[in-house]
Hints:
The protein is an alpha/beta fold. Helices cover 44% and strands 18% of the residues.
Amino acid sequence: MSLSPTKTLDDYLADGHTPMMAQYMAVKAQHPDCMIFYRMGDFYELFFEDAETAARALDITLTKRGRSQGDDIPMCGVPWHSHEAYLSRLIRQGYKVAICEQLETPEQAKQRGGAKAMIRRDVIRVITPGTITEDTLLPALQHNYLAAMAQAGGESAIAWADISTGQWWVETLPPGSLTSQIARIMPSELLLRASVNNSQTHIPDGVTCSLVPDAAFDSLQARQILSGQYPDHAWNTFSAAEVCALGVIWHYLTQTQKGNLPMLLAPQRVVTGQTLEIDPATRRNLEITQTLQSQRAGSLLWAIDKTLTPAGARLLSARLAAPLASADAINQRLAQVELFVRARTACPRLLATLRGLPDAERAVSRLTANRALPRDLAGLRDALHLADDLHAQLQKLPEMTAIWPDIFAQLHQPAIVKALQQNLQRALRDSLPALLREGGVIAQGYDDTLDNLRRLRDDSHHLLLALEQKYISLSGIDSLKIVHNNILGFYIEVPAKRADKLLATQGGDPALASVFIHRQTMANAVRFTTLDLTQLERDLNGAADKALAHEQTLIAQIVADSIAAAPDILRIAAGVATLDVTLALAELAVSRNYARPIIDGSDNFKIAQGRHPVVEAALHAHGGQAFVPNDSNLSAGQSLWLLTGPNMAGKSTFLRQNALIALMAQIGSFVPAAAAHIGVVDKLFSRVGAADDLARGQSTFMVEMTETATILNRATARSLVILDEIGRGTATYDGMAIAWACVEYLHNAVQCRSLFATHYHELTDLEAQLPNLTCYTLDVKEWKGDIVFLHTVKAGTADGSYGLHVAKLAGLPTAVLSRAKTVLAGLERTHYLNPSALPLFDAADPHATPEQPAYITALLEKLSQVSPDTLSPREALETLYDLAALCKDNA
């Protein structure tokens, strides 16, 4: 199939293609990177390569339709009425789909161009992973971002938008931070400049990249367009790179949405440094919003999410992705949470109201994009009503005005919104159809004209009977009937022998003759009509179509009113989401016995009885044992903890829990501890666990060193660094040397708050050399040859690694364990007799008293018997031979 964007429909017809295939190829040529859903009657059909790809992706039958230039045309299709399920599967796999719709009916095409006229079709929308608005295609509990990266004026910027909620943001990128920002945002789709080599940009799995023409990356043109769309916005505060990134998103949306652009609020500018920086490896290691297996269950978000609305869940997820880095802002959130911790009696009713609240943000988006469903209007009605109820409930809390005055402004409904809410209450039926075009949306009694048209449509039989009874009473002819046929339509029929009184020419009653108009005389009957019957017939003939058309007019007006109020509705919806998150965090704090942390600008990091929020939640969910809490203190004088202890004792859990406590505190949440005092962390780094990246040609050790290098190069004195088992991926001495140097660098150069876990017990000697390093260990007890993990952190160093004990617990064969003990004993003796030249090994274990080999004892005994001053030369030579032989025999 040869396609060219410069070829027209006539060109494809001239190539010998059928009219339908020529039309398809003209559409496909304009959207070569999309699958074309080509509407044919009740199906969306796909052809050629699209059909083959879709058949594999959707597991549907691949067939064929005729031939094109001698070759069969592959084809498959999906039903039009249920296409969204198939569309969802394609979008989730990263495909783009162009919807090519019929723009007229077959009858309209015939009227336009005769019996053989081709139905007009064109693309009405391009659906991509980042431009979805449908509920059935969107994850309800998380944002769906479309992002764009741009460079201008010597700077780089990234913009991201969620068109399903009308929000978008932009931020200038500090050097080297692109990967971290993409990992924080996790867009469904990332827009990149087509002419630039993007191979060095690390794109996380699950992000679809789309190339955009260079013409879209014009910051001057973007500033002009955006200034026209948002004339009152402070565009002078945005850099050229930021405006360019926003312009790319605007350009892409206008190209894909084909004139039905959802409402976007004025973009928000994010200032670098306002949020806690978390690099991609740390996000992955800490399993913040999803586990290493990409599951929500088992993540921090899963453990703490008690929100009751989709918008609240999305906001909580966004806060976890970008915790605050300002003590004032964090404390403001904490105060709001504490308000509801104290006001427990007010919470149940607030929570009950939130539980039934629809997703107004996404309903507004579909309304503004002309994709609304009846349930969107109903959702808007119910959401505004319940938000008004929330506003009234909050006004009854005396502390709200002092602690959280902004919430009243967010939830306030101006006159335009109140009028819309009342109108929606009156206008919508309780039971609604699936689609607006089906009718049956507007309630009885809302509009007199619509009620009359529906009455004509639904009650025509009763209306005709009523009119018939009226004419029987008026004429006195009980045999009078109103009849219908396809030629005359509705008419009045009277027996011929009784019709004279209605005919003026037969000497009938002039008054009746003026009402009944003669139409036709038959052998046995005479037919009449009246002005009322003619009007009723006219009304009945178009009643259904007129009722539907009038209802669509009423709906269009309601949608227009909703769009006019959309900015206020989105503000109210954002307020409801914030309230939902705050109440959820308060409920979490009370139900889990969390404490409010002290947050300030100091260097403190002091946690009393800290617990791991995810492990504790999992233990609670399965009815297991209580979590063992532990203290930590990385404040001045002990900012670097060196943690030793056996595997399985809980080192990694302890490391992670401190990182997660800091993260939770900086989103404005109470934390799983008895008390906490945390100086704001600017960057959070965590290197925990081992993983390789074979797709990029990186071994486990290479990944470990790359992540460690990122930490050491980017950490500041205000950072929190969590490192576990650095150097374990290579030879023992290499690894130990790397770990040793890393500890020294963190202590002397970075001087940040750090937890460093290791199995290299030799590193504990650094405590004597580094004043801010303190050694801690995980406590264990030996019992009848086994070990018991107490999961308690205490000052000091581990007695050993207990690796063989752990291996025994894991079920290694007895023979393997026995041989391992023998090998270990030999290695320990060898290490004692052949110490390394490195200074760190000189005092690896000053308390060790290894068993001395027998030949060493014999050698020392023989030497002790020698008196050098009395030996003759010959005796000295014989003694030397004896000593050499003794050593040679035991070499």
